Every structure is written in structure tokens, then in C-alpha cells.
Automatic annotation (TrEMBL):
Protein's UniProt name: Methylenetetrahydrofolate--tRNA-(uracil-5-)-methyltransferase TrmFO
Annotated binding of FAD, by residue: G9, G10, G11, M12, A13, G14
Annotated HAMAP family: TrmFO
Family recorded in the similarity comment: Belongs to the MnmG family. TrmFO subfamily.
Class in the EC hierarchy, top level: transferase
EC number: 2.1.1.74
Subcellular location: Cytoplasm
Subcellular location, principal: cytoplasm
Key words, A-Z: Cytoplasm, FAD, Flavoprotein, Methyltransferase, NAD, NADP, Transferase, tRNA processing
Amino acid sequence: MTQVLHIVGGGMAGSEAAWQAAEMGVDVVIHEMRPNVGTFAHQTGNLAEMVCSNSFRSDDDEQNAVGLLHWEMRSANGLIMTTADAHRLPAGGALAVDRDLFAEDVTARLRAHPRVTVTDEEVSSLPDDGQWIFATGPLTSPALGQAIQVETGAEALAFFDAIAPIVYADSIDMSQAWMQSRYDKGETEEERTAYLNCPMDRDQYEAFIDALLAADKAEFHEGETAGYFDGCLPIEVMSERGRETLRHGPMKPVGLTNPHQPDVKAHAVVQLRRDNALGTLFNIVGFQTKMKYGAQTEVFRMIPGLENASFARLGGIHRNTFINSPTLLDAQMRLKSKPNIRFAGQITGVEGYVESAAMGLLAGRLAAAEILGRELPEVPQDSAMGALIHHITGGAEAKTFQPMNVNFGLFRPVEGLKGGRRGRKDRYKAYTDRAKAEWTNWLAQC
């Protein structure tokens, strides 16, 4: 066996695909255009750089579909999950990491792997031969995007992602803010105090909403339309949907008690999550924004405790492209018109770090098996992996296809369980138990 697997894009999906294929005994070349060709959102040339958030979201593998996906990836010796666990930060029930150490470690491990080569070059066309995985993510280069559009004969779908700002910890006024995870969630004191909270009373909240609505916003380029993925809405877009939207979303005050004023219930609370292991940086949770830089500093310094905040990074917005996977990909994630090419990650229409890495994991294994002349069993639909790949390769309605996070709505029902909120806990546990059994069985056959 001398055939090499080429992977275009060294983000979450590309990194995981490379690791899985290399571990199966296939030589891999990762083509990553950074740092020679930069993007709006990336700041380094590291593989698996986290540009939006430092969180992989819930780590609960019994009651949460994302946590279940974590479990499945760990079971498959996933590079992303293994490295995330090594650089974990306190985040209540979530899995958050020091983003710099995480990306540096992923890069080092892949560059050190004897079967992996990393090249700093841009690929701008779809090759006719060889085995390829395109995992170029939400910031696919214009030239490659054009090549994909020409090949597929379809308009590339697009939406917009926004990035949240990061604050220096020593610029936060702790006489007003306090450390606490919502509902004191977590098994250790460090986890129970993983979030930094800034309270607002009603007048402060109303003034904040007024400022958000009036702030200068980034303009879109000519011909662009502002379609957003609902899981990553800018806060000013949320506030435009109703003045109470933020108070029932990222600024909800429930499950928190202010030790500075324990008898006063906050009207709204802004939460910040630690962004690095040193605890010197905090990102403002759920505060993705398209405000211009000057407006951001003015508006965010209205938050109690952040009046003198210094920002390590301000927020921003960028275009995110993806293909209409249900019409273009087969069940093995191959492009129907060019079966030597697979797609993986966000470009396939999955949303989130975890989902992207998961599709990279499957694409890497499927491509490696094809190169090795092995036939893998079909990915079980009742696993989290299977639910996602089924959704993007045919389960979704092509006419209304939009980016999707993993969720239990993608899972087939378990017979005999009642629906509704009251039966949710038993239903979710049944989903995760069934998924773990199916996934474990699939791995044993691979």
C-alpha cells in the first residue's frame, strides 16, 4: 500500500481525520494554507486553532448529545478529545480548554507522527485522482470555494459566524463580580466557581440594550446577505428580536447568588469563562458580536465590573460557507461527481468544534479503509456519529438544509418511552445507552 491520503485544511476536522487515518497505517499529507495565507479569524499557523470559543460545550454523556459525541470520540482514540482533556479548564459541566496550549499540542502531535506530513500550501482545485478529504471549514478560500461551486453546479450556501471578545482578568473589578457556576454545577470547588459573573439591575440592563441597538455595526460586503446560524447569533441581533431575549439567553440570572449582595436578585448576569490555564484571560460567554471595535469597548464597559476592562481580543464577524451535503455527498461522505474526494467538518453543514471533529474522525477512517482495501460496516445510525452523518448525507431536507449541531432530535425514537418534558430524562438516558452500545459494537468491527 503506497497511496497517500491528502487532507486539505488543518482545523478540527482535518486534524482528527489525519490522526485516525495515520493510526490505521495510512500515510497522510495535511495541506494547510496558514500561515502563508491567513484568514480574518485565525491568529496563528497552528492546527486545530479555536477561533470562536474555547468550549467544546457539555461533557455530560448521559443527558446531552454533545457529551455523548465526546464519549464516542474518546472511545475511538480521538486526538481532539484526548488533547482537550489534557488542557482542560474549569467550566462547570462543560469541557473548556486553554485554546493556545490545545492547538500547540495538536500541532506537535501530528507533526511528530511518523505517518503525517504537514505542508504550508493552499489547494485551490479539486483533484481528479488520489484520495482526498476537504476539511477547509467555514473560511474556505475564495479560489477553492469557486472550484467547489463549479464542480457541484450549485450556489454555495452561506451564513455568518461571530466571535466573542476576550478580557484580561486583571482588568475586571472583583468588588462587583464574583466566581460561580450556574447552580454551583461541578464536582470540585474549582468547577463550581468556574465562571465569572457580572450582575445588572433593571436600569443597567435596559441601558445596555439601548446601547447595543444604537451601536455602529460592521457592514456586509456588496452582495452578501446576513443569514445567521441560530447557535452563534451576535448579541445585537438577539436584542433586535426582543428586549428580553438576552435576559433569557446568555444573560439569564438564574442559579446564581451575588455574594456582594446576597439578598438582591440580579435582573441579568453577564458570564465570563476562563480562556487559558493561567487564568489571565476570560471570554464573555455568548457575546458574539458584529459591532465595530470602538463601539464594543464603549458598550462592554457598561457591564458592571468591566468599566475598566482591557481587551486581549475584540469580537468580529466572518462569512461561513458550506455545501448542500444531502444532494452532493454519498453515505461515505464522498462527492458523488468525484468519488475520490470526501468532505468533512463544517463545510458539510455540521456546526461546532465537536461535530466538525467527529465528521473528520469518520472521514479519516472511511478514507483509510478504502485505501487499505477494507470495508467498514455502516456507521450505526443510533450512535451520535451515525445520527450526524445520516443527517448530512440524506436525512436532512435538501431544500431547507442549514448548519446543525448534534441534538437528540436527530435520533430515532426509542420505543416505549413517553415524549414531552416529563419523560425527557429517561428518554435521553435511553438514547445515550443505545448509542454507546451501538458505537462500541461498531468500533469492535473496525
